[in-house]
Amino acid sequence: MKGVILSINPLARIIDITHDLRPQDITGAAFSILVAYPAFPHGTIHVAVVDPGVGSDRLPIVVQAGNQIFVGPDNGLFSYVCEREAAAQVFAIRNDSLFRRPVSSTFHGRDIFAPVAAALSTGLTPAEVGEKLNTWNTLGTLRPRLLGNRTLQGRILHIDHFGNCITNFSREDFPGSQSGVRVSVNGRNIGSLRQYFAEPSPRKAESLFAIWGSAGFLEIAARNRSAAKILRAKAGQAVTAHLRNDR
Amino acid sequence: MKGVILSINPLARIIDITHDLRPQDITGAAFSILVAYPAFPHGTIHVAVVDPGVGSDRLPIVVQAGNQIFVGPDNGLFSYVCEREAAAQVFAIRNDSLFRRPVSSTFHGRDIFAPVAAALSTGLTPAEVGEKLNTWNTLGTLRPRLLGNRTLQGRILHIDHFGNCITNFSREDFPGSQSGVRVSVNGRNIGSLRQYFAEPSPRKAESLFAIWGSAGFLEIAARNRSAAKILRAKAGQAVTAHLRNDR
Amino acid sequence: MKGVILSINPLARIIDITHDLRPQDITGAAFSILVAYPAFPHGTIHVAVVDPGVGSDRLPIVVQAGNQIFVGPDNGLFSYVCEREAAAQVFAIRNDSLFRRPVSSTFHGRDIFAPVAAALSTGLTPAEVGEKLNTWNTLGTLRPRLLGNRTLQGRILHIDHFGNCITNFSREDFPGSQSGVRVSVNGRNIGSLRQYFAEPSPRKAESLFAIWGSAGFLEIAARNRSAAKILRAKAGQAVTAHLRNDR
């Protein structure tokens, strides 16, 4: 893919975000894109290829959102970005004059996404790639759901390299209760909220804690251990938060 | 190695292809080079260091092939490229004025290959590096062998990240029989040929299938599973293809 | 982090050294920095983030040493470089006008180190970042200790990708005895010294050997096997070297 891009635009600057996703891990890729893109300059073109449906009738798409561009399959990879960026526009990739020939049925990253991204980097506009779409595939929403008036139903968006479980709870879900977050995962309650990972614990036995992570989401962590292993937690599974009376 | 290259040619553009090969995996590296180089622009210099013989009398070499240059040890890393590119020329690296000093006996990547590649990127020609060689070390051929008139004897070139088993069978080995490929691995027959990975299977129980991969080789795959694990297959092992009568 | 750097300095050239360190592996990171920096051009800025103490009162620092700059947490990551480079200067990072806002308490790589490194790449001097420090945190010394007059007490600095155990013994620790190094790890003596990994062994049964590695340190290795596994050795543990009478 890098060779294809540089063959079309020798001045392209290529940055690796990650090559350490598990095979077929669409939700992990979607999370990685969500947390990375806000730090990139306007005009950045992101290419993402976690693409188990390659060769089927799933569409290749270009997303224009947040002054950046995203190229890849329509399988949810960019749906978190589209949820965040109200003005997101999604285009089908139809202009096959841009493709590398022959187009394989197993590696659209090389034959479609890379050459389209390279063409966009030389001035092509998303609208020149194909028609604008009104619907696209999405993963679940980033917003937790209120059950009754004291319980929030959320999920684990991602389990990171350290075993931290990153939920979809944001600070605005806990108005006025910064100091008293209580969440449950797999029947276990986590009531301790830390400001940073190495914070001394008041109770020695307490190994799990919650922490506001760098992506703005509540994470469940354990110092120098994998919280996911302790909790037997998996990406996508349910997490519950209990809101305090003073909400 | 990147520091050495940039110290000699501050304008060099360095692209990572892979750092995920297993230690000493010469055939895996040779396969990665074979599938990557066709996508790169003319004049690209590829540096490859899978080098268990470092420090012994194995030669460091420069290969000029397909309008590109390859730098590394003479242990077969570039032999697939040389087989593909009839006009390939191979040069010994002798010009030790190019080397980083002192030359370690355990890391020629840093002390020989990187500085030679950097010098080539600034205009040095392969012939200025050392004499042209008539022979070099090769891995097995990329061509399968015809046994009788209906059986092709091939091998698994590589097992990829997903567990797909990539054979050395090419489309031209199966003239007129695109729809009826039948291969055997470890006593198991795979008779189903798919166009893409997510293709719906007519028979539910059927987990293994063949597919023409993005490198132009027949691959044995299993949807969302590792075919290599199912088959207990290893890189380098034999694979047999049965040609149809209508050949 | 790459997005933050490019947002501040669009002309920055970003090179990846490694993303394969184990979580929290400060000594492995310190070793990687020690062996990589000498090959880089003057003016290179190294950013390193192995940072279990992020958010606590550990300082963020900038190190100026060997005509290069290092940015990261004050947890020993750069202490080997400071030991090597007598003229090293260490500065606290205090100038919070450089930081990305809001500063998270869990990812200073993105919010402090990356923007400070980017500012340094555009001409800011280390002294403009904060005051010079007289002390900083260090890992153990790179120098082994002489016990009596014939025994050197050292340690394993790092276990590499291949399982080679890299000690802190340097050539100058063995004056006049290049051919007769004898080291002990976990009660096992290694008396064979090879020049290169693939050197034919005089004794077949002998699997472990010592070798002067590319970083200038004595390594304990096994051909095509992991010496660390054979020895059940761990990074940081003691290694003893026995000097010969003719010292």
Q: What this model shows, in words?
A:
3 copies of one chain form a homotrimer. With 247 residues, chain A is an alpha+beta fold. In chain A, 17% of the residues lie in helices and 26% in strands. Chain A has 5 helices and 14 strands. Chain A has helices at 2-8, 26-36, 79-84, 108-121, 227-231; strands at residues 45-47, 60-65, 68-73, 89-92, 132-133, 145-147, 151-159, 165-170, 182-185, 188-190, 193-194, 208-212, 217-222, 238-242. In chain A, the strands form 2 sheets. In chain A, strands 6, 7, 8, 9, 10, 11, 12, 13 and 14 form a 9-stranded mixed β-sheet that branches. The first copy, chain A, has a 5-stranded mixed β-sheet with strand order 1-3-2-4-5, covered by helices on one side. In chain A, a hairpin with a 4-residue loop joins β12 (208-212) and β13 (217-222). In chain A, α1 packs parallel to α4 (108-121). Chains A and B meet through α1 of A and loops of B.
Helix % of chain A is 10-25%
Q: Can you write the helix and strand succession of chain A as a string?
A: HHEEEHEHEEEEEEEEEHE
Task: Count the E strands of chain A.
Answer: 14
Q: How many angstroms does the end-to-end distance of chain A come to?
A: 51 Å
**Which overall shape of chain A is indicated by the principal axes computed on the Cα atoms?**
elongated
The largest β sheet of chain A comes out as: 9 strands, mixed
- By helix and strand content of chain A, what is the structural category? alpha+beta
The whole-angstrom Rg of chain A is 20 Å
**How would you state the average pLDDT of chain A, rounded?**
93
DSSP summary: helix tally of chain A: 5
This entry's quaternary arrangement is homotrimer
- Strand residue content of chain A: 25-35%
**Largest interface by Cβ-Cβ < 8 Å:** A-B, 24 and 25 residues
Which spans of chain A of ≥5 residues are poorly predicted at pLDDT below 50?
none
